[in-house]
Amino acid sequence: MRNRGATTRRQLLASFAMAQPPPRRSVSGSVLVHEHIMVDFIGAGDIKPGRYDAGEVFRAAKPKLDELKSHGCRRMLECTPNFLGRDPRLLGRLSDAAGIEIWTNTGLYGAANHKYLPAFARQESSDQLARRWIDEARLGIDGVKPRFVKIGVNRGPLHEWDRKLAHAAAVTARETGLTVSSHTGDGAAALEQIEIFVNAKAPPAQFVWVHAQNEKDHSFHRRAARAGAWVEFDGIGPRSAVWHRECVQFMAAEKLLERTLISQDSGWYHVGEAGGGDYRGYQFIYTDFLPGLQNDGWVRTLMVDNPVKAFGDL
Asked: Structure pTM?
């Protein structure tokens, strides 16, 4: 009877533990370097004003941002580029309402086989594109100055349009001091872009390899970081957390944690879907991922120190 009673108590305790919410983690002054508020996947040729209700997007996003702020987040880099749903005015409204800095970007997105690349970008030179982005950086977009450059390229070897985007981004970085976040198809494409930066005399430290978790060969992560670039493991979520922790642990073991960024690539309101579709929140990294790292020094490095070193603190 005693054994049976002990078993029952253990079962009850286990059930109680399973019913509890995940551990809550607050990281004061933390920054999420890759998230989204809204995205429109219709394509550059069809995107136009009036495809969404900004008030509806505001109402969908505000509670998610309030929740995020409760975890100590002070800034989010909103990585939706032009011709994919960028709306600096909406981001400004949400920033004021939620009390979180929301940074927008300049640049263009060539990934997804150039579906989101407007016609002018296919025709203009890299220097002409850079001039557009430099002007946006200096003059602002609808009264809002972009704080970083966002581009997207496909897998390597890079298509000529992708190389053009990378070179334009390097020139923009060199002339403005802004950091470039590049959605990148694989490790080969990352190294090719770093070479483009070096040849354009732009510091590799101004280049962020976005979606580095999609490259399963850690040697590419090592090479990019040792070249001086930032290696970003984003897309953190329930189905990927184990792999992301392995990536962080690898970088720490290689003494490259100070070239590492993490984020979720979460959100977002989907233009064209009823009610904006499935809008995921931004708290998983705090409630589930960071507690699993079990190293407070790593947490501060990844969530507070590195984002500021990579993007500045304007």
From this structure: 0.92
